[in-house]
Design goal:
- Six copies of one chain form a homohexamer.
- In chain A, strand 3, helix 3 and strand 4 form a beta-alpha-beta unit.
- The first copy, chain A, has a five-stranded parallel beta sheet, sandwiched between helices.
- With about 120 residues, chain A is of the alpha/beta class.
- Chain A contains five helices and five strands; from the N terminus they run βαβαβαβαβα.
- The relative contact order of chain A is 0.18.
- Chains A and B meet through strand 5 and helix 5 of A and helix 5 of B.
- Chains A, B, C, D, E, F: InterPro entries: Bact_response_regulator, CheY-like_superfamily, Sig_transdc_resp-reg_receiver.
- Chains A, B, C, D, E, F: One of its GO terms (biological process) is phosphorelay signal transduction system.
Chain lengths: ~120, ~120, ~120, ~120, ~120, ~120
Amino acid sequence: MPVILVVEDQALLQSFVADALHDGGFEAVVASSGEDAVTLLKAHNGQYRALVTDIDLKGKMDGWKVAQHAREIQPEFPIVYMSGAAAADWTSKGVPDSVMLSKPFAPAQLLTALANLLNNATPTA
Amino acid sequence: MPVILVVEDQALLQSFVADALHDGGFEAVVASSGEDAVTLLKAHNGQYRALVTDIDLKGKMDGWKVAQHAREIQPEFPIVYMSGAAAADWTSKGVPDSVMLSKPFAPAQLLTALANLLNNATPTA
Amino acid sequence: MPVILVVEDQALLQSFVADALHDGGFEAVVASSGEDAVTLLKAHNGQYRALVTDIDLKGKMDGWKVAQHAREIQPEFPIVYMSGAAAADWTSKGVPDSVMLSKPFAPAQLLTALANLLNNATPTA
Amino acid sequence: MPVILVVEDQALLQSFVADALHDGGFEAVVASSGEDAVTLLKAHNGQYRALVTDIDLKGKMDGWKVAQHAREIQPEFPIVYMSGAAAADWTSKGVPDSVMLSKPFAPAQLLTALANLLNNATPTA
Amino acid sequence: MPVILVVEDQALLQSFVADALHDGGFEAVVASSGEDAVTLLKAHNGQYRALVTDIDLKGKMDGWKVAQHAREIQPEFPIVYMSGAAAADWTSKGVPDSVMLSKPFAPAQLLTALANLLNNATPTA
Amino acid sequence: MPVILVVEDQALLQSFVADALHDGGFEAVVASSGEDAVTLLKAHNGQYRALVTDIDLKGKMDGWKVAQHAREIQPEFPIVYMSGAAAADWTSKGVPDSVMLSKPFAPAQLLTALANLLNNATPTA
């Protein structure tokens, strides 16, 4: 199963996203802070197929920063942001070829966003 | 859950569409005529995230007209049409950036169509 | 239910793909060789809405050839390839407007790929 | 040279559009009313590769109607609209897969719009 | 003529870009620093239809920052970046729905990039 | 100036394409057979930014084969085909993410096709 790195600090949303991913056939690894996510990305580069991140996070690093780090590590890394109030900042703070899911969103929106990003990525042997 | 306005006058298709939406994590509000749909759109503008409409409807207003009204109320409103015989008229009677689902279609096609339209919409705070 | 022609010679993958399609509301007809698939496409042209094919197949005809035959029979036929090692050859051996799913992939990726190809196809009465 | 049917009733804009098309390597046939345009499309179906139409026209038929007629005659006909005040109505009155050029626009915008529509069209022998 | 704001501090590239824009029917206003560009965008919001910016600029503000400011002022503002060495940073530092032109690029690439961004923008009356 | 490799064996079309490219700011290197084109691609890999090829060529290698070779050498190489009678074969014989220009086409169509392919390519430092 393709593994997706999820960055979310609220237990309720962690379950919502992990369940949605599982129903679509993905495996979710959940990091509860941006700092943890970047550590995982650096340590296990190549293990994760995409990043799904909330914007507002407990630590010093918000979701915009996590995504930038992910793209510096792997320039074409698929990125999906989730946010309520911060969704309107996506056009100035998001990275190219990413998707912003405005809360509330349906699990089908998350799965379609991920699938489109993964299916458009260049296949490599 | 994001709420989708469904316009369909046949009970069997109402269930098919409502079940598909529910499985994808959407809530469905079903109007059984185009006139009812436009009344709901005018009364609760902002409550619905997208319109899913059949073309042939019992009243005087067909699905093409419902979609035009919806776009006059909200210029970028996501629209999905469903039809059998009338699907071929989409290129002359549909609105820009809409999707036509030719019957028979699978629930996954409806969910992907909706998710793509919602995910591409400009996020607003 | 829309019928999808699946070309796969391994029992495990046949089940994986057929289950995924069924969960999305599609019906799967499985051919276990490229030769069988082409025979079915020629005999029942118009019955299948899309082709999902593995690349490495037991017979003399690989998935690249099956897809080319399908497009010669019906020029806009929706094509989804599945492969591991051969995924990197898609840019030189695939047909235009097709999708390559790199193994391992999630069922949601297959459903989104198919739905996008079917939803973008020109509707015909 | 590919021939483009232009519908425009103002001499100044007729020249502007015809010059832009000519510079891009297209031939322009100019109709000064929607009625004339539809007559030409019916009489010489297959001769024109695309329609470029203003919205406000002198006769009873506006640009929205001309485009609908063109699509009824040829379902995938490439359409480019040009307008000032009426541009905002495109999302409710335009046809799918068309382009609206908001005045004032540059010749490069017209040429790119036409080229994209023609290049994406299915090639036929 | 649609007016494009160009941010470039080298005289040779200023001419190259201004000439290309002029040939495509655009008017170019050239700012020679990021700070000047932001001042112009704030003072004359609505006058410019798009931003074309180099990445390496003389002042403290590079092209990435200029684009972010432009998007904060107008959330859907069309952005085209031009760069040599910094082009590879676009996937982590660029804004969504922007275009990066890798030097050397042809005038036709600049015109097509701008035209696509302008033609896809929502028309407003 | 970005250099484009053109494969064309008719003098008249060589001039037409070379002039169009030059007007758009590209430099054209013309090979008069598919065999010559592949030799140039192998010898000077990285010098050419895109391939523009006719389908019917004098030697044993047609344009379909040249494009496949180009993609084997460089997996994402931008490809534009030009053809009259063979244009309808593009959906079965073309490579993914390529463009088919049906003759007769306008120079603006060639420039837009190339610019779109080059602008969408991943920038590399």
